[in-house]
Amino acid sequence: MDIEGGSLSDKAYAKVRDMVVNRQLTGGDILVESRLAETLDLTRTPLREALVRLEGAGLLIKKKGTFICCTASQRCRIFSKPENSSVSGIQGSCSRR
Question: β-strands 66-69, 60-63: how paired?
């Protein structure tokens, strides 16, 4: 997904989200910010902002300062909560794993 315009954080968000959806990153993968920033040709600041947003979207979890890609069952638990019932798009990834 290519976002023309938009902030670097938005671009990082879209790229990492696509990596999760396309299974380039899978459940349990530990994300090393420096390597991921280099891979995406970004600095760590917009990447870190994107990772925090992806955590909020339920695609990543943060443990001891490290972001980890959620498993499909973790995403399903997040999306099955009533307060998240209006969230769409990523929900389909639960059934594809």
Answer: antiparallel
